[in-house]
Design a protein that fits this description.
It contains 21 helices and two strands. With 472 residues, the chain is an all-alpha fold. It folds into two domains: 255 residues, MFS general substrate transporter like domains (Growth Hormone, Chain: A, Up-down Bundle), CATH 1.20.1250; 216 residues, MFS general substrate transporter like domains (Growth Hormone, Chain: A).
Length: 472
């Protein structure tokens, strides 16, 4: 190509304004998977006590039904990349949409406890797929100048999905006069809560037919002409399409397909940097954040708050989660990853300690004393705020940046797996721990929040402003 074609191609990476709206639509459609990720993860919050009552089960069995979805999450996350490389990103999204839909219908119409658990696993598999395919697709279609901002759509969609699920649960509960097992149109309220997900799941599937396949995948299967069409759509006119295709091909040929063996070190099994990634993932979960999203309604009802109010507080907590996430997205590139993580750890530790103190009080007429009740509610919201503005976002940023290029993909997979396992451990243990000692349970979460501070100070290096090639 002549040199006169190069300046427009370079400038086109920023996408002309007339194309940016189309790119935003594509990104938002892909991020619907993130919305469903958040929605399906937390909608169960509204059905916990109804499931316990309908099937007359103890805390241990209940915990397994709630947590079993995480097994599907782990499998879906582990296999989504290979599925997407084989059949394409769009087909992968469509499979996830079908699984979300089937899971919603099955969960809403179970005929026994075991098949409810089965549909939870199916939904978990879809969550795992969405957690991988959404960010990957967005990164591959977004123009370089907008990649960071467009990439944040996924995390924003997740927290919005969490909030919407709690709002829907609250609205359905009010329609059932505050009874989670109250009948609406022939079904119990909790069944409607789980079934409503059919609507966003079908929308996700329909949107997947309206967006193009990833140029990277198209090039990998030899469909270069189609890849050029998509690149023209997302990067604007004037792009040197042949040069862009060659650039993508060169990058793909240079990539090192990291394997589990690349992660092994001489001490303690893994390389030190891999252990740091695992530590970040595990600490993110061991502070008990998912108790706030899976069990908050049950938690508040256990200390005497009526169901309708408990569902409302679950919704307000989700709004705080959105606010904190926006704060993190604004600050993460300005103040750095480590400062946010340290501030978040300190804030979470203090909030959790206050929750532990509040829950240590004896119930009066089945309720916490007024002072402890107010402290518990405020502290719970502050805990979610400090998590969202720090570890909720920062850990994923760290994991995407901290590993050397030669091991990044495999190391990310191990760290993500550790996160799902820790998530499962917290989710499966909370009901039994709460029966044992609710205050003691929050003391455990407080200890983990405190321990995360020296962990970050000693082992976690700042990645702000560093090129990925500098990581070693």
């Amino acid at each position: 190509m002549t040199s006169t074609a190069k300046p427009p191609a370079s400038g086109a990476r920023e996408a002309h304004p007339d194309h940016l709206g189309h790119v935003i639509f594509i990104t938002a459609a892909a991020a619907m998977g993130g919305f469903l990720f958040g929605y399906d993860s937390s909608v169960i919050n509204g059905a916990v006590e109804a499931i316990r009552d309908r099937y007359d089960i103890g805390s241990g069995t209940l915990a397994q039904v709630i947590a079993i979805a995480l097994i599907g999450c782990a499998i879906g996350a582990a296999t989504a990349g290979r599925i997407a490389d084989r059949i394409g990103r769009i087909r992968c999204m469509q499979i996830a949409a079908v699984l979300f839909t089937v899971s919603a219908v099955g969960s809403a119409l179970p005929f026994a406890l075991w098949d409810l658990a089965l549909w939870r696993v199916v939904g978990g598999f879809a969550i795992g797929m969405a957690s991988v395919i959404g960010p990957a697709y967005i990164a591959e279609v977004a123009p370089a100048a907008y990649r960071g901002r467009l990439g944040s759509f996924q995390q924003a969609a997740i927290v919005v999905g969490i909030a919407v699920s709690q709002l829907v649960n609250w609205a359905i509960l009010n329609m059932a006069d505050g009874d989670q097992r109250g009948e609406i149109g022939g079904l119990e309220a909790w069944q409607w809560m789980l079934g409503v997900m059919v609507i966003p799941a079908m929308l996700y599937g329909l949107l997947s037919f309206a967006i193009p396949e990833s140029p990277r995948f198209l090039i990998s299967v030899g469909r270069k002409d189609k890849a050029k069409e998509v690149l023209s759509e997302v990067e604007g006119t004037g792009v040197d399409l042949d040069a862009r295709v060659r650039e993508i091909e060169t990058a793909m040929h240079r990539e090192h397909k990291s394997t589990f063996r690349d992660l092994l070190g001489s001490r303690f099994g893994f390389l030190p940097i891999v252990w740091v990634g695992i530590g970040l993932s595990v600490f993110q979960q061991l502070v008990g954040i998912n108790v706030a999203f899976y069990y908050s309604s049950t938690l508040w009802q256990s200390v005497g708050i009526n169901p309708s109010s408990s569902f409302f507080y679950s919704f307000t907590t989700s709004i705080i989660n959105i606010i904190g996430t926006v704060i993190a997205m604004v600050l993460v590139d300005r103040v750095g990853r480590r400062p946010l993580a340290l501030v978040g750890s300190a804030g979470m530790a203090i909030a959790l300690a206050f929750e532990a103190w509040a829950f240590s009080a004896d119930l009066v007429d089945g309720k916490l004393p007024e002072t402890q009740g107010v402290v518990a509610l405020v502290a719970a919201h502050l805990f979610v705020l400090f998590f969202a503005l720090s570890w909720g976002v920062v850990v994923w940023v760290f994991l995407g940046e901290m590993f050397p290029n030669r091991i990044r993909a495999a190391a990310l997979g191990v760290a993500a797996s550790a996160q799902w396992i820790a998530n499962w451990a917290i989710t499966a243990s909370f009901p039994s721990l709460a029966d044992w000692n609710l205050s003691g349970t929050y003391v455990i979460y407080t200890v983990f929040a405190v321990l995360s501070i020296p962990f970050v100070l000693k082992y976690v290096k700042e990645t702000k402003g560093k090129a990925l090639e500098e990581m070693g």
